[in-house]
Structures are given as C-alpha cells and as structure tokens.
Design a protein that fits this description.
The protein contains eight helices and four strands; from the N terminus they run αααβααβαβαβα. It starts with a helix and ends in a 24-residue tail after the last helix. Pfam families: Nitroreductase (PF00881). InterPro entries: Nitroreductase, Nitroreductase-like.
C-alpha cells in the first residue's frame, strides 16, 4: 500500500486543510539513503521560523549524520526505538534553553521547542522525508555524551530520512506502520469553558 493510499484510508479531515497536515506522520522504516545537505538544512530552516515567547528562540538541534556520529547517539536511545531508528540516516536531539536572555526562568521554552518540532516535521513531509520524534531516551546519558549545558532541557530525539518499506521492520512494528487517526474536532474544541463543545 502506498503512502498516499494509507493516508487516504486512515485520515480524513472534516474541514478543509492543506494535505500536508494529513500526509505528515511518523514512520519507523527508513531507506539507508543519505539526505542531501540542502534538503536537510531546509528542514531545520523551517524550524528556525517557529514562533516563540519574546522571540527567545530557545530551541537548539544537535544532529548526527555520519555513521560515527550516529553510533555516539545510540547508547542513550531506548531499545524499543533503537531497534528501528538505527537505519535512519540522520538523528537529531532537540534541546531548549530554560533561561531567557535576561537570565530569568523561561516557562514557555518547552512549548516553543514543540512549535519548532512541528515546523520541522511539516517541512520534512513537504520535502518527502519521514520524521519521527521520540521521547524514549535516557536524558542523563544524552546530556553526558553530548555535553549539553545544565540550563538546556533535553526534550526529544528525532529520526529523519526517506521512508523505507514496512517489510523491513519486525512483525510487531509492521502492524504499527500506518498513519494514526485523530479524535473528532468536536471533542477537542470547547467554547466558553472547558468541556463546553463548540461544535454541536
């Protein structure tokens, strides 16, 4: 089943939106194929333009493209993710500054870093890449191995590359290699107060 067929089968928008939002999902199977530098940098260029409180832009990305660099990342990725993400040609760690430029705690840094990931994910889809964000990693190990300063929180590991055949995955993972659906908008959108449905 092609990616487009899978998306059409699993995902239907109730209101008119750009197809990029439906086409973006988080595969686990990757081709062992390099991502051209200009394509890769365009993905992070998109993240650069994400909104942030007071334009602090707290996010940073640490990437691994060579075999040696990726192997440096593997020890802090949990086995359940490592089993499939080792084929990805690019890995990235998303970190975010918890202190503002004025030396104050940045309470919105996590929210802003999430926005940067969202922009990155959409541009990756536009460029024909698969991007998968992982929370299954050992933060202390990542901090130690990558020498991340204490004021930076470590939020995610991201795999990037061209989507591969799901048959390359284990049987268990093959079952999960489909675009996930979403709950109806009427269950998410409230009006006037929590739980007050905006859409009847």
């Amino acid at each position: 089943m092609s990616n487009n067929t899978q998306v059409k089968t699993e995902r239907q928008a109730n209101y008119d939106i750009d197809p990029i939002y439906l086409n973006r999902w988080s595969p686990r199977s990757y081709q062992e194929k390099d991502v051209p530098e200009d394509v890769l940098y365009s993905v992070f260029e998109a993240a650069r333009w994400a909104p942030s409180a007071s334009n602090e832009q707290p996010w940073r990305f640490i990437i691994a493209r060579t075999k040696e660099e990726r192997e440096k990342f593997y020890p802090f990725i949990m086995d359940g993710n490592r089993i499939w993400c080792e084929k990805a040609p690019v890995l990235a760690v998303l970190v975010s500054n918890t202190v503002t430029s004025k030396g104050q705690p940045n309470g919105s840094n996590e929210f802003d870093a999430g926005a940067a990931w969202g922009y990155l994910a959409l541009e990756a889809a536009r460029q024909g890449l698969a991007a998968h964000c992982m929370a299954g990693f050992f933060e202390d190990k990542a901090r130690d191995i990558l020498e991340v300063p204490e004021e930076f929180a470590i939020y995610a590991v991201i795999s990037l590359g061209y989507r591969g055949d799901k048959e390359e995955l284990s049987e268990t993972l093959q079952e999960r290699e489909v675009p996930s659906s979403r709950r109806p908008l009427k269950e998410t959108l409230f009006e006037g107060g929590f739980g007050e449905n905006a859409i009847k």
